[in-house]
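Figure 2 data, in text form.
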Amino acid sequence: MSTPKIQVLITGATGYVGGTVLQLLLSHPKRDTFEITAYVRSEEKAKVLRTFGVKTAIGSFDETDKLTDLASKADVVINIADADHFAGNKALLNGLKKRYESTNKAPAFIHTSGTGVLNDDALGDRISDMIYYDSKPEQLEALPDTQIHRNVDLEVIAADKAGYARTYIVFPGTIYGTVSGKLVDSGITNHHSVQVPGLIKASLHRGNAAVVGAGKNVWPHVEINDVAQLFVIIFDAALADSAPHGREGIYFAENGEYQLIDVSREVAKAFYDLGIQKGPEPTPLTEAEVTAYGAQPLGANCRARGERSRALGWKPTKTTEDFIASIRPEVEAIVAQFAQK
């Protein structure tokens, strides 16, 4: 009698992070032991994914009944779609509870949050000496419940405490880097991150590289392929039930830090060389611009250390030097996109 395959549900499978994680799962050495279902928003994308041997379901995070039903059939849910959609995330957890009730075995929930949960209100004017460690859950527990991502994170941890799911939360810093592979070549995945491209687009809109305040604040960074490797390491550990979960299932993805001013200066140099702005320096956003561009998080301090991630065997390779070097190609790609519009 053959062993039933492990059922894996992944959301955000055509996104920047989700697509990179899915590619690693498709080439996983134990790929023949699990079946992947991807929850996507369009039949067009679903059709392409099916050519890679991925089952699909179509819907949005607003369709909570669909999410609950899909999660109720999963042994592992990898959620990379929306860190802040409370109802959608709660629906996934409700489905996992049903799975537990029908199997008497706690399924695994690998959830994507972000180090933005650590943000302060510096607005670029100071560097903080407060550093958070994923090995110290009491630090996160001291955060206000009103911090971004926090309400969903608390629900995820509560599910583990209740015993019906084993939960693992990944907190990436600023993600950067180029994605490649068969899924990317198929044209259905997002090629760009959010944070640095968002700064570049706002800068293009105003005609000069932007910085929040003096840009003294600090953020962690992590390269896209490094962070995807962390997801797979946690996936493997979840299948073996060999990693901390719940309150201690906190995993920061970072491999160094940067000050915002260094990013803004790189954007400014590229803009100057491309003839977009007259001088090679960034200029501060006005208070109105900070609000209009939603740039408050860019000016926050967000300092994190992934001790637990590394203890699990994660070995990121890309450094701060790699991060800074990635900015000019990002600028050039986005400028080219704008030129085509």
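Caption note: The radius of gyration is 20 Å.
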